[in-house]
Amino acid sequence: MPLWVIAHTPTTFSNEEKQELAKAITTLYTKVQIPVFYVNVQFLELAPPNVYVGGDIPDKYAGITIHHIARAFDSDAAKKKFLDKVDSILTPRLKPKNMNWEYFIQQAPGDTWRMNGIVPPPTGSELEKEWLRRNKPVGEGNL
Amino acid sequence: MPLWVIAHTPTTFSNEEKQELAKAITTLYTKVQIPVFYVNVQFLELAPPNVYVGGDIPDKYAGITIHHIARAFDSDAAKKKFLDKVDSILTPRLKPKNMNWEYFIQQAPGDTWRMNGIVPPPTGSELEKEWLRRNKPVGEGNL
Amino acid sequence: MPLWVIAHTPTTFSNEEKQELAKAITTLYTKVQIPVFYVNVQFLELAPPNVYVGGDIPDKYAGITIHHIARAFDSDAAKKKFLDKVDSILTPRLKPKNMNWEYFIQQAPGDTWRMNGIVPPPTGSELEKEWLRRNKPVGEGNL
Question: Model pTM?
Fold first, then answer.
């Protein structure tokens, strides 16, 4: 977590564009000191006739669900700032393709999240910094 | 948004049935004056051995998640009315196939939704009517 | 419902391992007297370059979303007990593969869930026991 699921048609992204977009999304989170291995990006390729917008099959398409858990926004200003950052990633990459795209954030409480069977540490905790430094999930016993 | 994700096995729908079902779902929403391009329908084909019901691989299958954002139901009566309309679409199309299907609605708040980098207008607003008339997302500056 | 969506890379699971894992997940729920046909398990295969963790393409990967509806946990203890059971399924099967995995539970209210167009009975009700005995959804009129 976070997890971005990017449903798209085959002509929307090249393989190189997928890699580059995944890196940009990852940087968005690591800038705020989230362990890099938290960031999951999945591309879900839907070929015709498997995706419809307004009842028609689009040529290019990106329907993005951003799953956030354990991190609600502190304020409307913080939320807007984050969404503006998301747009700063998506708009320059998608608008030149002359296509439509949309996204929304699906939030879930963090108390049912586990990595490798381990409960991730609280946001901003010393243990989370340790996960970031070690670049992997570590149990308290492994410190 | 709305977004229907229809996970299914390869033998469940023909290409023509997918197109026809997507149109019926779209009409369900446009009847209540939602801009037609809001309606996303995705078919997610899962071939054996990638889907299980009760531990067994089904022949025909449709597991449907309906994502709604920004529009909660006003009352239990409104909710039942909507679900009955959903059934009026699904049941006549799926019951003759002698198969099982299920769906549920996953709701999310609307305040993190953006289309083409633009915040969609409030439900029932003049700007939303403009989006409906223009049949595309338009920023306030583009009116 | 419940619905497990297991996104994974092609080298993560063999077909036999998928079947065996789906059976283990199903048993987790049927032990607590949930009708077996409630349990849906979907494997979503994402081949490179379609999945990224920390901006890199993983070899083995399992990103699992567990959708629960209509059944919240009564207490923190009940939640921990359930998650520990989930780990007792996943950890012995995934840890030997020398890979990372994660999961979280996405909960939704149960009041928009329908199977074959029928509202599922309340948890623990006589009608639910009938569904379990009959091993299929039955309307009240069909009893």
Answer: 0.96
Task: Please indicate whether, in this complex, the C-beta atoms of C100 and A113 are within 8 angstroms of each other.
Answer: no
Interchain proximity C106–B103, CB inside 8 Å? no
C80-114 tens-digit pLDDT: 999 999 999 999 999 999 999 999 999 988 899 99
Q: How far is CA B133 from CA A40, A54, B22, in A?
A: 38, 14, 21
Q: Is position A83 within any domain?
A: yes
Q: Which CATH number does the domain housing residue C44 bear? A: 3.30.429.10
Judge whether A128 lies within some domain.
no
Tally of structural domains, chain A: 1
Q: Do A3 and A70 contact (CB within 8 A), yes or no?
A: no
pLDDT tens, residue by residue, A102-132: 999 999 888 999 999 999 998 889 999 999 9
Kindly state whether B1 is in contact with chain A, defined as any CB-CB distance less than 8 angstroms.
yes
- Indicate whether C122 belongs to any domain: no
Q: Given an 8 Å threshold on Cβ–Cβ distance, is C41 in contact with B52? A: yes
State the residue range of the domain holding B84.
3-112
Which residues of C are less than 8 Å from A114 in CB distance? 83, 86-87, 102-104
Q: Coil, strand, or helix at residue B51?
A: strand
